[in-house]
Amino acid sequence: MERVKQSSHIEMKNACVHFLFAYKKKDVPLMMSFCDPDGSIYFKPLGENGMGHIGNLGRDLWSLLIECFPDLDNTIDAIATEDDSIKCQVLISGTQAKDFAGIVNKGKHFDSDYFFVFRLNENNKIEHIKIDWDHEDFIKQLS
Asked: What's the pTM?
């Protein structure tokens, strides 16, 4: 029985890694293919404005990030399973090329640790994502 559970955790991790690799490739449609578009997303530092559906708020915010930071990149630093969740620590970096969410473009670069918590449904699609980062530091790096 334990073997099945380990395989399930491996499949869950793989779905999350594939999602983050699609993000690295800046391929939002591919990112969405690993998700339930009706699933929930929570960009924690944005409070209530950061809550919505993966297929709307998530897709739109990632598209905007990719447009405003054309060299956007990510590196998975750590990945772990906890109960029914996959937790990933990801270094995200990029150089601003357009104004973004009230942050005036000064052509500056950022490097920030982001913490993703993924939950998947029975079809191995991401049904919930919680993302946290030091938003004040992000703004400071770009100011």
From this structure: 0.91
